[in-house]
DNA sequence: AACCGTTGGTTCATATATTGAAACGAAACA
DNA sequence: TGTTTCGTTTCAATATATGAACCAACGGTT
């Protein structure tokens, strides 16, 4: 394994739950030698990827990340219009909405728009959180449209159980994926977080490949059948627009059109 | 030089002006071998730091950056390292030092470090005090780097006169701002408090926007030309460090570097 | 105060991962 | 068509990473 990857693995230790850690702790979590981890951390620090608190000696994520993320956002192609679609979906549905993107085996949050808060109960989503492919509506939707190799790769990894309704067997996941494929959208009913229902549809890129998912998360209590259908239509429309903004090919777009007409 | 740093150097090639680049171009810019750069890019890609457009083969900054930056922002530690820079500046200059931040049309004190008291005359600063933009070195420095709308807004407000040398006309202020812009630092000679000379430089945030100023306040009596130049260099260096800690973009940092070299 | 289990950090011989010139096929260009 | 440039692969030479052992310092216990 390359040194670069070993070093960058360190960054993945940091999370909202664990915003800072010391040398020994990092080495333990990675199962590596302190000396190596120290050298890696020093290199990362030199480039501003992490920062060390001179008092506590703990490391935390550094300013270079803010800078680079800013560059990425500023130069992300055609991002603005896509974000607008997500925002509109949040407004129309009145619920928390998030767009996720697939990259290197992971489904990561692209943009999260919190529910327009006019009181009442809403779902909160952590924008830094990675979405498990097997336990979220977004994940199931994506798996239902991606290439087989990608799906197999995802299923090969351990299927962590989050709630009593998390599908943890290959068969259970595949069945959900299959219904999602037929319907054109996925419903995740408390499989990741109890009481939160996700309704998601795949988004496609210019090559016609699945590249992520758009999803609305609602409290289970607030969903009856007509409301559900309403949201499904909104999500499908948003997925169509985002895919279109990314230059998805005609046959993908028209498939959305027939799905929306059916809903 | 460690491999990690060499790999991370690649990320610095990306900028709003150059949001994507190919392998050869990157290798050329870095003066390194294509093969190495390819391996580095592949490693970075595996960790999501860059992404390769499968069509054009060009690389651009990856989703891991957005994710990690989000974690960093959520867990933003009350920036200890920045305070350290201010403290160090106070120590190196031997004078009272303060970092101010712009917010809602006002320049407010972020952190004030009193001069290391080894006797003699020093300037006292009230940490609760708001800094008039037109009459302090910090204010002039900030105005010399902020966007036009902000500057106009500041000039539209009444220009209170504090001492005989307070600039009270729009033209007088603008002239000071212009010299500050050219020099990269501002000197406020008793414009707010007679006998107190401020030397300030703008600090920038991750968006590359001016967000405040760092300043050293000395008694006029204790300043000769060489001492002044000494402090200017220290202030510029501190501004550079603070901006860096806030993730300011490369072109901002390098501007500081040239200014420091000139001083 | 002496002891203990930590911590972050350093050293150096060993072993391993990195390196870069050269070569390749593909694509773009003239 | 030949020419250039591109991304990518290979492999021997070597520069670099590694980790066991060690150190000094800190914070609790006894």
Q: Would you give an account of this structure?
A:
2 copies of one chain form a homodimer. Chain A is of the alpha+beta class and 263 residues long. Helices cover 46% and strands 19% of the residues of chain A. Chain A has 2 domains: 3-67, Arc Repressor Mutant, subunit A (Orthogonal Bundle); 77-262, GAF domain (Beta-Lactamase). Chain A has helices at 3-11, 23-30, 34-46, 63-75, 79-93, 137-143, 148-156, 170-183, 225-245, 250-262, and strands at residues 20-21, 50-52, 59-61, 96-103, 106-113, 130-131, 186-189, 196-204, 210-219. Chain A has a 6-stranded antiparallel sheet, sandwiched between helices. In chain A, strand 7 (186-189) and strand 8 form a beta hairpin. Chain A starts with a helix and ends with a helix. The model of chain A has no long low-confidence stretch (mean pLDDT 88). Chain A binds a DNA duplex (30 and 30 nucleotides) through residues 1-3, 6, 22-24, 32-36, 38-39, 57.
What quaternary form is this? homodimer
Averaged pLDDT of chain A, please? 88
Named CATH topology of the largest domain in chain A: Beta-Lactamase
For the largest beta-sheet of chain A, the strand count, sense and barrel status come to: 6 strands, antiparallel
**Helical/strand content category of chain A:** alpha+beta
Measured distance between first and last alpha carbons of chain A: 49 Å
CATH architecture of the largest domain in chain A: 2-Layer Sandwich
Distinct helical segment count of chain A = 10
How would you write the strand order of the largest sheet of chain A?
6-5-4-9-8-7
Q: What's the number of domains of chain A? A: 2
